[in-house]
Amino acid sequence: MLKIAGLASNRGRNLLHIADRAPGGAELSVVLTNREGAPVLEEASERGIPTEVVERGDDSREEHERRVTSRLSGYDFDVVCLDGYMRVLTSEFLDAMPTTLNVHPSLLPSFPGTDAHEQVLDAGVRMTGCTVHVVTEEVDAGPIVTQEAVPVYEDDDATSLKSRVLREAEFTAYPRAVRWFAEGRVEVTADDVAVDGDEGGDFPDRRLASDDRVSGLRYGENPHQEAAVYADDSCSEANVVHATQLNEGAKALSYNNYNDADAALSLVKEFDEPAAAVIKHTNPAGCATAESLAAAYDRALSTDAMSAFGGIVALNRECDVATAEAITESFKEVVVAPAYSDAALDVLTEKKNLRVLDVGPLGEVTDHLTEKRLVGGRLVQERDTWAPYREDLTVVTEREPIDEEVESMLFAWRVLKHVKSNGIVLTSGTETVGVGMGQVSRVDAVRLAAMKADEHAEGKSADGAVMASDAFFPFPDGIEEAAESGIEAVIQPGGSVNDEDVIAAADEHGMAMAFTGRRCFRHD
């Protein structure tokens, strides 16, 4: 466990933040101040951290430092962390101490000194931040351990900038540096610092994200929530954030429109054949591929035309007039496509509140990571671009699936990747028949998909359909429920401790079942 001696002259907010976060398991052995009544004393005591006060008297700087050293000698510590300790330290003191760190409120070597924020504003720079460095006798000049950037805005003054640098930069960089020391990853030499593992790649040890606000939105998911949309201008993949809205007179996209349009576009990117998808609350109401775009849209819509009302339509081909006419037969919020014929645009733009988005050529997937903001951090993962091909399937039942069932299985899996878990998709050929999404019980997801197929789909039913499940069936009950609805083939990851029982249930009902060996959970 890394033990820290903290030195502060005033509030010591960085030290207290480190004490609260305990990065890498580090803890403060003592907090020492050179000012009686410094606010850090009470805050440290409340956290159970021992405190010491060594005020500067009439003695010399060297004599004062010797008294500090003497007072600290009763504590065990591996590193010294300064936080607004308003003293220039001598080489004698630094030599007597282990590595001593300080945080400075600018990106050194720019803007050293006590008035860094004022210097930043006077210089007119657009980016500042903080620097954690090894303390040397030369002020603000020691080897740099880490830095964190913060933008400078037009309405910033020294007070607002100081507050943001503290909370957005120092509260990030100082704990990071302490964690690195706690993990034994830092090597300090006379004029350099090396950090083991501080390398790039998809999952670097530290990340800096920078997005630009495109516009404010009318509201967020609900009218009482404020919202804005930000763009990543480095993204070269077709996307709805950079899409051109072709009917300029229509109202702008809402927060929910962006979310749903992104989900719809991501789904149709799965297919090389003409494909259409209708999305509601980021879940597919229906999806299909066909020889023509109009046919694909008709089959997607017929899965659940009632739920598709007010939904988002995505197409992976230039929208032609036949498809446009079919789309406008019922209320839709947004249409997303890589292009539109002039005749199709004439039809679509007659609908005042239908937003028409041109995302340009779909091209290749270039964004390989996805992330989700959490309170206190974010999750980052690889994008799920995998989908099985025929050779990836392991048939586990006595009956082999016929070619048409295999084709339907592979189509179903690509749709299933875009369904909230627990998710079940029923398909016939290359069109959805029923979708059961977002259930906490897999059996309920099967029931929901079958109900949708039998009650909401037009000219379709669960009877004879293929079923895809985003995770294994933990018990045979899901297969039993599917058999009651007439489902004849199943694609699922496999991997349950009860796989044998599940396979036996499928065999009992004459089903064909194939395992993919991979699941496709989706939780956001």
TrEMBL record:
One of its GO terms (cellular component) is cytosol. InterPro entries: AICAR_Tfase_dup_dom_sf (IPR024051), Cytidine_deaminase-like (IPR016193), Formyl_transf_N (IPR002376), Formyl_transf_N_sf (IPR036477), GART (IPR004607), GART_AS (IPR001555), PurH-like (IPR002695). Pathway: Purine metabolism; IMP biosynthesis via de novo pathway; N(2)-formyl-N(1)-(5-phospho-D-ribosyl)glycinamide from N(1)-(5-phospho-D-ribosyl)glycinamide (10-formyl THF route): step 1/1. It comes from the Archaea. This is phosphoribosylglycinamide formyltransferase 1. It is an enzyme of class 2 (transferase). It comes from Salinigranum rubrum. The lineage of its organism: Archaea, Methanobacteriati, Methanobacteriota, Stenosarchaea group, Halobacteria. GO terms for molecular function: IMP cyclohydrolase activity; phosphoribosylaminoimidazolecarboxamide formyltransferase activity; phosphoribosylglycinamide formyltransferase activity. One of its GO terms (biological process) is 'de novo' IMP biosynthetic process.
